[in-house]
Design goal:
The chain has 185 residues and is α+β, with helices and mostly antiparallel strands. The protein has a single domain, classed as Roll (Pnp Oxidase, Chain A). 28% of the residues lie in helices and 32% in strands. Strands 1, 2, 3, 4, 5, 6, 7 and 8 form an 8-stranded antiparallel sheet that branches. The termini are far apart.
Length: 185
Amino acid sequence: MGSVTNELSPQLHAFIARQHVFFMATAPLHGGHVNLSPKGRDAFRVLDPKRVAYLDLTGSGNETSAHLLENGRITIMFCAFEGPPLILRLYGAGRAVLKGTAAWEELAPRFPDLPGARQIIVVDLTRVQTSCGYGVPTMEFRAERDKIIRWAEAKGDVGLEAYRQEKNLRSIDGLPTALGQDAKQ
């Protein structure tokens, strides 16, 4: 049925590669709001059996970055909506990698060059857990939505930077994000 390990097997790596969507969750240490977000757009990469990353696009908030800066805790979940049922949860310690850093230059070529790319979230895995997924419905993938790409293209680099300065420097609970920390330096 389910299993627990501390790294990704080749079979789980292949399962991840077939998925069109994943979900990530973070939370502040004390009170505040739990963040749970769906992600897509071919933005997830297995870096090695114990480390994964995803390209994070500019959005209306930046909770993930704030929570990771505060405590590092993150969970990523994949569900098989097609094929045999399976749920895969990746637990670990994450961090936001920002543009203009050596780590960004190393990681960015692994991802598509998408308008609105804001940061890369890197996760060092501490637990890899599978479960049955029997309760997950089957659904057919039709297409990626292109609204976020068109929105970012319309904003342009200057508009995106202004938007991030207005909306992405603090979490909804007032915690600083990595972008906010970077702005202080």
